[in-house]
Amino acid sequence: MKSILDNRPALGKEINQVAEVAGYLWQKGWAERNGGNIVVNITDLIDDEIKQWAPISDVVPIGTTLPYLKGCYFYCKGTNMRMRDLARWPMENGSVIRIQDDCASYVIIADAPVKPTSELPSHLCMHNHLLNKGSSYKASLHTHPIDLIAMTHHQPFLQKDVLTNLLWSMIPETKAFCPRGLGIIPYALPSSVALAEATIVELEEYDVVMWEKHGVCAVGEDIMAAFDQVDVLSKSAQIYINARSMGFMPDGMSQEQMKEMTVAFNLPK
Ligand code: 13P
Ligand code: ZN
User: Fold this and answer.
1) Among 99, 118, 196, 204, which one is least packed by beta carbons within 10 Å?
2) Strand pairing class (208-211; 182-185)
3) Is 61 touching ligand 1 by the criterion CB < 6 Å?
4) Per-residue pLDDT for 170 more than 80?
5) Which CATH class is domain 145-269?
6) Could you tell me the pTM of the whole model?
7) What pLDDT score was predicted for residue 121?
8) Which residues make up the CATH 3.40.225.10 domain(s) of the chain?
9) pLDDT tens across 233-259, in order?
10) Which residue among 26, 30, 32, 34 is best mutated to probe the pocket of ligand 1, counting the most ligand atoms within 8 A of its Cβ?
């Protein structure tokens, strides 16, 4: 079968990285059934030939208008598709879409008419926000890490930056590799535009945000970078949970040690 990846090594490399990360999400236990989704802005990898391709779907409304996405191309995980399947067959479990000139709808252009993830409004709002800010970030990830979701079932952890400071203090690298911390978004209906709008408010301040009692959303230069930020936060959550299950409250790094880290690694806050 003809694929958009044929004779396009740069695009192939990008989609291979998506497949690699999808495999990690499954191995980590963060991707039960169809849980989680990935959207990558591949506009820079789209050549003139692809731009001529006819749509293979109807025009589908996004549910909101996103002016910075006009004519952009995205690889999207398909709705109801499994990460563990996407890891092996990315173009059968996802598709490439083009945003229409009205900035409010899209068409699928390759390889097969696989309907994009139900969280498309949130992902596209995040990409619109990134482009508006002139960011070079190309990837957005939503996943269901057990440890981090469990922590959002406890009200005191939902206060601003309580989890950020707790997780940063578990191991020095967490602050170094997730320097903007973890934003918290109160529970909202999955796939809703309300959830999407709340997400981009928090992205002003954070690269990784928690959807209360649901999952994590992260953005990054590429999908591996987005995954890495969630992975370091999850590692910290594991250290906290392990200490608690050994029967003690972990000390955490001291304020002085945190300050020393911030200066030594030239971190923003
Ligand atoms: P999709 O299968 O539509 O991508 O949904 C998975 C999910 O995690 C919804 O929040
Ligand atoms: Zn989800």
Assistant:
1) 204
2) parallel
3) no
4) yes
5) alpha beta
6) 0.98
7) 96
8) 1-119, 145-269
9) 999 999 999 999 999 999 999 999 999
10) 34
